[in-house]
Amino acid sequence: MDAASGDERGTTERVLTLLGLLQQRQLWTGPELAERLGVTPRTVRRDVERLRALGYPVHAGHGVGGGYRLGPGKDLPPLLLDDEEAIATAVSLLAGAGGAVAGAGDAALRALTKLDRVLPTRLRHEVRALSGSVESFGGGRTPVDSEVLMTLARACRDGVEAGFGYPSGGEVRQRRVEPYRLVASDRRWYLLAYDLDRDDWRSFRVDRMTGVAARTWRFRPRVAPDAATYVQESVASRVYPHRARFLVHAPADTVRAQIPAAAAVVRPRGDARCEVLSGGGDLDFVLMHVLLLGHDFEVLDPPELGRRCRALAERLLSAGASIPPVTGPADR
Q1: Of 252, 187, 180, nearest to 219 (Cα)?
Q2: Hey, which bits of 40-157 come out as E strands?
Q3: For the chain, which domains are there?
Q4: Which residues contact 282 (CB under 8 A, 6 or more apart)?
Q5: Which of 105, 118, 145, 253 could serve as 79's disulfide partner, Cβ 3.0–4.6 Å?
Q6: Cα(145)–Cα(290) distance, rounded to whole angstroms?
Q7: Contact 207, 167 (CB under 8 A)
Q8: Predicted confidence (pLDDT) per residue in 86-97, tens digit
């Protein structure tokens, strides 16, 4: 490489670094930028002119409080990503924003904001539509194939049917669905979709899908349930043979902090009480979990669970009958 090429590459890298600094903070003084870049203020002014020549609206203020700042994003030139690259980047960032990458939520949201600023109008609209296809009620930590996630997100965005294999009854069956939303739980990614063969709404675990493909047939949007609520209720109760409802005498926020989002749905009932909906393979198991929360509670459904409460109370009293009661000063 000759000296001229090396100088040109160095200038390009410095100008890109300058652009990154201007995106990080609203206002920089010339001396601050010069110090960060290791150049003179005069070189900073030249690099600012290079950015302006590329279409970046860098504004300069004079006098006390003056400095350099990057103007509104509407005038920024297109980001050098093709459509597929931009969509893939957005899906990855959405995964981070939804909690799929531990600790990366805030950084992913900042990156999404920057991506949205520099995309051309056409692509910005596509990414925003894609963002509207993803919801969350927790995190999303089980790894999934990014290509599968991207395919489903685009199908939600474009309103086209999707097909995939899904285990059911010990075998993998083909499903045809109208996809509506991707939802990230505290453990996994789910798809809320209308199952065309079963003529009803269903939630599907993305990590259990095989052969995922978007079709060309568009569908007319139906009135859909709230995606995050529907999937959370499915994960917490619908998939289990037994479901139970409790009225817990504690604020909803307190109980939510004690129960994982995937284990139960907690709805406020005023300021001091809440309703807990959960499910399990055994009602006694569900009952013990609510008992161990440490709050007074009442069984709302099913009636059978109320009878089990009384039976359990009798067993507990019987188990402690041989132990003398603790006596206080008043009993002596």
Answers
A1: 180
A2: 58-60, 68-70, 134-136
A3: 12-75 (1.10.10.10), 83-221 (no CATH), 240-317 (3.30.70)
A4: 242
A5: 118
A6: 36
A7: no
A8: 666 766 666 555
